[in-house]
Amino acid sequence: MDIDHLMTGLGQRARVASRAMARAPTAAKNCALEWIADALERESEALRSANAHDCARAREVGLSPALIDRLMLTEHTIAKMVAGVRQIAALPDPVGAISHLNIRPSGIQVGQMRVPIGVIGMIYEARPGVTIDASALCLKAGNAAILRGSGQALESNRALARLVSAGLAAAGLPADAIQLVATPERAAVEKLAMMTQYVDVIVPRGGRGLVEALIACARVPMIKHLDGICHVYIDDAADLEKARAICDNAKTQRFGVCNAMETLLVARGIAAAALPLVCRTWRDKKVELRVCPESEAILARAGIGPRTRAVEADWRTEYLAPIVSIRVVDGLDAAMAHIHTYGSAHTDAIITEQHAHAMRFLREVDSASVMVNASPRFAGGFEYGLGAEIGISNDKLHARGPVGLEGLTSLKYVVLGHGEVRQ
Amino acid sequence: MDIDHLMTGLGQRARVASRAMARAPTAAKNCALEWIADALERESEALRSANAHDCARAREVGLSPALIDRLMLTEHTIAKMVAGVRQIAALPDPVGAISHLNIRPSGIQVGQMRVPIGVIGMIYEARPGVTIDASALCLKAGNAAILRGSGQALESNRALARLVSAGLAAAGLPADAIQLVATPERAAVEKLAMMTQYVDVIVPRGGRGLVEALIACARVPMIKHLDGICHVYIDDAADLEKARAICDNAKTQRFGVCNAMETLLVARGIAAAALPLVCRTWRDKKVELRVCPESEAILARAGIGPRTRAVEADWRTEYLAPIVSIRVVDGLDAAMAHIHTYGSAHTDAIITEQHAHAMRFLREVDSASVMVNASPRFAGGFEYGLGAEIGISNDKLHARGPVGLEGLTSLKYVVLGHGEVRQ
Lengths: 423, 423
Description:
The structure is a homodimer.
Chain A: H1 3-22, H2 26-42, H3 44-60, H4 65-71, H5 75-90, E1 98-103, E2 109-116, E3 119-124, H6 128-140, E4 144-148, H7 154-170, E5 178-180, H8 187-194, E6 201-205, H9 208-217, E7 230-234, H10 240-252, E8 261-267, H11 268-284, E9 288-291, H12 293-302, E10 307-309, H13 312-315, E11 323-329, H14 332-342, E12 347-351, H15 355-364, E13 369-374, H16 381-384, E14 391-393, E15 401-403, E16 409-420
Parallel strand pairs in A: 3-4, 3-6, 4-5, 7-8, 7-12, 8-11, 9-10, 9-11, 12-13
Antiparallel strand pairs in A: 1-2, 2-16, 14-15
Helix pairs in contact in A: 1-8, 2-5, 2-7, 3-7, 5-6, 6-7, 10-11, 11-12
């Protein structure tokens, strides 16, 4: 079957199913989620055997151990999926809530109702867990979804998607509400991102290459982020121990995540005191230091190394590795200018005891998450209390930052009248 | 100067100005708005003389009287601009408000701060009033803007934009925050819609042709609507007098507006009673009736004409004229199916006394505005209490329906810590 025809069919069925999902009662959606969680436990053996096929093929084609690790379903990863689905079932249903219902001088009442977006196109790499997370979030928010995972995870995703469809059917919901694109062909991704009549938003989850390719071709709006070049700025008025603890956590708690810190900015007035303290911790944890000339001089005096000289490209690089770039700046304004020039509008933090500096940083730094005296590693749906997240957005329209259930919904106006007409 | 270079310059200056606007105090923004309102009054003569040049040229090239009417600045239209600007000055400043600031188990406080979007690209036709409306809204919401009006209004827009820049400067704000694209070349529009690094959102205001051309080329996200194919559905359980009054108002209060009704759907059970009542009023006001076979039979029996037979294309047409299409449907489900098939997700209304039908229509109709027993003509920023609107959105992401100050802003996450780190 050709891709166009295949994808159009998926799109049409998704659009039809989305109408039924939009009016589905909360109880039915939760029932489907509970069914899916139970089935994941019950079918754990079968899922792992489907996954074993994918892993075997991945080993044959020489996939790296790190990628095979991501691909693999274990007892532990399945238990995490189950817990995730049950958490989403326990979250309040965002759909149908009416806010700000005010009476206008004309007599009409005007409010806003939270409604599902419609059809979500999810495009992701070889992490089968995303199949379940995304299904559960889309389902709870009353959306239909078309899932396009990596070809490397096709057997696993097929087995998982069958489970999801069975759960939907068991709850009296359309089994088509969550569909998997069951072909590894790349053309399917492009077609999905072009079908504006059937797909309301694309959520890509993967590396920069995937997102950039989609930006080049997509006509459907996207909820996306490209980079997490996150900064910590140690202000003149910083508490040194907070600075040390937060820098340590921001850089070393995990390396390969988008909310890890990549660049340290430090005010000139405190650099001689702060840099040796912070960098000693990093050196002990084998973090590579890429430094500006002023930092270089300070660290040399303190005898902290090895260090290399940072180049322009360092300020624009998301290392996702035990590497950090370090720059001394004049103060708050220079720090914010650096962040706006080189940052990716993901998450940026200031360490300061000065209220006015904290307030200026909060107001003026134009990033999805802006923090005072806290580790950027907190940026995420669970830490923010949103529940699970379907992705992160660095864009300014619609959802910004971690995107949870609410980001998968929209607000429409509702007007309650009693026969009023416009004068 | 070539267009690329010209537009890049505008973009760079807008981006720089947007930073200053984002941190501008409310008092400064209101001071600029008051200055602009005063100057519009003071310079009324000069503005009308600039406008006279545009109108003379428009007559020379044979522009239709209706379009020249739109283009013309009169004492009345200038007074309306002044009142509009003063109203926007009086609206609360949306920027900086922090909502939902909750303490999380980790100790951090997480909330959302309303912030400007950044740089707005406004593309519109030969209505000089939009230059002032859009400037005032973007300014109040703390954004920079690049305005691209029609070449036909170039002299008028230049004079108005000079006033706006002077007002910004008088209030200590960057004069570059609002810039006019002072060339009539079409390539400037395309370039504006492509500059994702400098422009955060495009708001087109104009006919279907303009918006479709932009959809084909834009890479910057848009807040837009294409059509207003608005429906009124008279339910089995409708109050006939409400139905008559609302249908009359929805179709005839104004014809050329996007929230006027284009299609009447009527439940079979009430059609014989409702259609003659509604259509007699329309006939008396010379509204052309395009009817389905069942409506035809009912109207023939009632002796109401002239009527023509509706064809498939009628259900998809925004007449913007004294024409209405009429269709008898089985009931609520068939009406909603018709709306989802042929509608444009703008504004749709049900006339019913049945609570369950009203609630189903509200919940299930997937349009920007959904109404019960009220005229769709109410869909708009002023009637909804939002103040002035920069445009209307039929899309589901970000703003939906009338877009006012809030739609020109975004929410970022703010995190207040005390040195917390992630475990």
